[in-house]
# Entry
Amino acid sequence: MIDIQNMKRAECEALSRWIDPRYGFLSPDKFIPALEANREVYKVDCHVLEGYGQDAEFLREKGKEIFPISFNISRTDLEACNIYQKIEDTIARYGLSRDQVHIEITESALNDSSQAMVEAVQHFHDLVGYQVWMDDFGSGYSSLNVLKDYHFDVIKIDMVFLRKFDDRSKTIVRNICRMAKELGIRTVCEGVETQEQFDFLKEAGCNLAQGSLFSPPVPLDELYKKMAPYL
# Structure
C-alpha cells in the first residue's frame, strides 16, 4: 500500500494463495468458503500471521525494515479458537509490536454476526495498539450502518468503484473519503491500476492506494524489488 501524499510504501497486505499439485493455482474464493463452513479457516489466518513473523525474523537478520501488515480474520475465528490469544502469542514469539499488525474484517462478516463482531472490534481496541480495518467497504448494502455501529481505524474502499471508473463512481469515492475523514477514519482504495485512478484518489483525499499500478501480489523475495521506487 502506497501513501498517496508522499508516494512511499506504507505497509503491505498479507494474502493467502493455494498452489495445489493437482488443481494448480486456487484463489481464496475457491477454498476459504469451505474452510469457513467447517470452522477451519482460523488455521489459515494463524498461518498467515506466523509467516509474517518468520519474514520479520529474516528481515531483522538482514538489517532491513520490518513493514506493518494487514491480514484478514474470519467471523468463524471467534467461534473456533481464542483468536486474540493466538495473535498475541505469535507477535510475542517473533518480537513484533501490536502496531505492526492490522486486523481486517470484511463487510460480509459484519452482516452475518453483528454483535459478535462489535465485541471483537472493541476487544482488539482494548488490547491497545492493534488497528482494525474494514475490508471491501461498499461491496454490500449496509455500509453506512456499519460505520455507525463499529469503530474502525481504516476502511478499504472496494475495487468495484475503480473497475467502473465513471462519474458516478468518482462521486461515491470522493464522498466516502470526505465522510471517513470527518469520522476520523483513514481510507485505502483497492484495485488501483492506472495513473489516472491514482491522481483522482489524491484529489479526492484518499490516504492509501493499493493495486497492480504498484505491484501485484508477490512473495517476500520479490517484494523489495517491486517496492524499490516507493521506499
